[in-house]
Write a structure and sequence with these properties.
Elements: H1 11-20, H2 22-32, E1 36-39, E2 48-51, H3 54-61, E3 68-69, H4 79-82, H5 92-102, H6 109-127, E4 134-136, H7 137-152, H8 160-174, H9 179-186, H10 199-223, H11 232-238, H12 249-280, H13 282-293, H14 301-305, H15 308-320, E5 330-332, E6 336-338, E7 341-343, E8 348-351, H16 353-356, H17 373-376, H18 397-414, E9 415-419, E10 427-430, E11 433-436, E12 441-447, H19 448-456
Parallel strand pairs: 2-8
Antiparallel strand pairs: 1-2, 3-5, 4-12, 5-8, 6-7, 9-12, 10-11
Helix pairs in contact: 1-2, 6-7, 6-18, 7-12, 8-10, 10-12, 12-13, 12-15, 12-18
Length: about 450
């Protein structure tokens, strides 16, 4: 049996680099150990294996609940964000039951309804842009995706409570904007409430204000039950366990926070990256516009969703900069061999999505943005895995892909944009995910119908 490759840097310094520069940490390790390596960056025990080989990932992620388990308690780094009862931290039958309950909300006829809503929100957002003025792409995409979650998941309409939830959610998530503030999640010793002006004190007070609003909404819904409502909060409130018990207020709150975190911010980040790459490569934008124009005026959202080049652009965006860097942790339940290495029971493993998407043998010139690679080859679910896999696969994957395509299509169809400068945008830690540093500065030039009129003139 081969010896597992172990990074020799002291654990504390590994963790510092992992928090401050995760891309540099992963790429530096992969240069020496391209398939897997033993790391000391996580709080799962003495060490954890980073795995970035498709064959090994297939072995791990197709044996959930058998040779490997995916225990929820190992995801506790997100507990300050989503609470103790988030589906991210559930195990066993409870986890399976809630996934089964929620999955229909992201498929079927509901998607068409979501599509019209998404297009309306994009148009409303673009109206607020001023010609010639610089804006941050991430702020625009966050505004769109947050409103989608507020309406689809919460079922909230315009009003004071809705606006306060939007405002506080932005403050809550923007706390994690930089590696410095994200470090509060990784080092428990920093989680000290030293008053409202201290970083963790500000975080806790913002979270408490948001909690008050969420609990008020839950209380109002319980007092005014409407069986006609189809939003996800109403669906969650209707579920009963085997003993006939409903979800508690705290359980409902934690699931709502999970959707705010996993369903809003991640999609907004992917969209900001997409707008960057599309405008960084004008030929990509032109191909997309030709494909979109071929559909005519006001095409059905499902026709947009099925466009091959748009799909390739979105896939390449998620490949080159996956928002989530890692799968959820897995633990070996019995002795097992992985790529010629013997793993003992209790060994913890993380599939490294970022590194597998950077493998030269899978993706030639991996640093190059090349959507055509997704038109020329079909990648397996263990070679291209931006949404994870197995029992912890992202539940909102279908909605996220649908939303990403519609937002990009609508923005390109309606607005002429340009990057504010030619500087490359680098990935930077934002909490537990990767974000474009600076949020992607862009300029709104004019509405696209104005541009077409000028061309005709």
């Amino acid at each position: 049996m081969k010896r597992i490759n172990e990074l020799r840097t002291p654990a504390f310094f590994q963790k510092l680099q992992w928090v401050a520069d995760p891309v540099g940490y992963m790429e530096g390790a992969a240069q020496r150990y391209p398939d897997l390596f033993e790391s000391k960056v996580a709080d799962f025990g003495d060490s954890v294996l980073f795995v970035q080989h498709p064959q090994a990932l297939e072995q791990i992620l197709t044996n959930d609940r058998k040779i490997f388990s995916a225990p929820g308690h190992l995801n506790e780094i997100v507990t300050p964000l989503v609470g103790d009862y988030s589906i991210m931290l559930l195990d066993g039958e409870r986890h399976r039951r809630e996934r089964k309950l929620l999955m229909p909300s992201f498929h079927g006829d509901r998607m068409h309804t979501y599509g019209k809503l998404i297009e309306q929100l994009v148009e409303r957002t673009l109206i607020d842009l001023t010609p010639g003025k610089t804006f941050t792409a991430l702020s625009v995409t966050q505004n769109i995706t947050l409103q989608v979650i507020i309406k689809v998941v919460f079922g909230l309409e315009e009003g004071e409570r809705c606006q306060k939830i939007i405002q506080l959610t932005r403050s809550f998530l923007n706390f994690l904007n930089t590696p410095l503030t994200a470090s509060f999640l990784f080092f428990n010793s920093l989680q000290k409430d030293l008053g409202p002006w201290s970083p963790w004190g500000f975080f806790l007070r913002t979270r408490n204000q948001l909690d008050d609003l969420l609990y008020a909404e839950i209380r109002d819904r319980r007092q005014n039950i409407d069986p006609e409502r189809v939003d996800i909060l109403s669906l969650l409130m209707s579920v009963r366990d085997d003993a006939g018990e409903a979800l508690t207020d705290q359980e409902l709150r934690d699931e709502l926070m999970t959707f705010l975190l996993a369903g809003h911010d991640t999609t907004a980040l992917a969209l900001a990256w997409g707008l960057y790459w599309i405008h960084h490569h004008p030929e990509v934008r032109e191909k997309l516009l030709q494909e979109l124009d071929s559909l005519g005026q006001n095409p059905d959202p499902m026709r947009i969703f099925r466009l091959p080049y748009l799909t390739a652009v979105c896939n390449e965006t998620l490949r080159i900069h996956p928002i989530g860097m890692l799968t959820f942790p897995r633990v070996a339940q019995e002795p097992v061999e992985l790529l010629g290495h013997k793993l003992e029971p209790g060994t913890c493993l993380l599939g490294c999505l970022y590194l597998i998407h950077q493998r030269e043998d899978l993706y030639p010139e991996p640093k190059k943005f090349n959507p055509e690679r997704f038109l020329e080859r079909q990648f397996s679910p263990h070679e291209f895995i931006p949404f994870g896999s197995g029992v912890r696969r992202c539940m909102g994957e279908a909605l996220a892909q649908f939303e990403m395509k519609l937002v990009i299509a609508k923005i390109l169809s309606k607005a002429e944009l340009a990057l504010a400068n030619n500087r490359s945008v680098k990935p930077q830690r934002r909490g537990v995910v990767l974000a474009p540093a600076g949020g992607v500065k862009m300029v709104f030039l004019q509405t696209r119908h104005s541009a077409k009129a000028e061309e005709r003139a």
